[in-house]
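Students often ask why we bother encoding 3D structure as a string. The short answer is that it lets us treat folding as translation between two languages. Here is a chain of 184 residues written in the first language.
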Amino acid sequence: MSSVAQDKSDRPAGRGRRWGRRILLLMLVAGACGGLACWQCSPSTTTLNISPTTAPADDEDARLRKLAIGTWGDEYKGKRTMHLLEDGTATMHVELSGFNAILGSKMRFDMLWAVKDGRLQKKTIGGEPSGRVNMILKMMGDSVDEPILELTEERMLLLDADGETKYHWRRAPGGTSETQPVGD
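And here it is in the second language, the structure alphabet:
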């Protein structure tokens, strides 16, 4: 018998499979983090000065802000529902699907929002489950500043910081600025 064959027989049974499982688990966690990174908007690294009492700088921002108030939904990497409230606060409910749901499928992000210079600015201030939300915030940052490409009563089209990805938000039924989300 060769020394190579003898060395293999000296190893405990199953040891190679355990390493394989560890590597697979590590790859799954890394992939999940990458999937969440792709899902979450690529935020700018600058800190946004958003407060619920921020007044729009001009008439166009005031018009866009008024149109933005309400409930919006999209299907980016799963289902997202965003409630933009008149007081400058917001919540986003996220239901991830497929590979992106490996760390959990449902999350809520609590945010502040404003419209400035034709851009939708959002800053995440918390959410649930807090462990997953905090992990995403550490990886991606807590703020986004997205140019508003189009905003009507029925549609909001935003551009990601990558300059390519577009988020197609549709107004939820009954989600006009006159209605407030119920049961959040």
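Translate back mentally: Confidence is low (pLDDT under 50) at residues 28-47, 179-184. Keep this in mind for the problem set.
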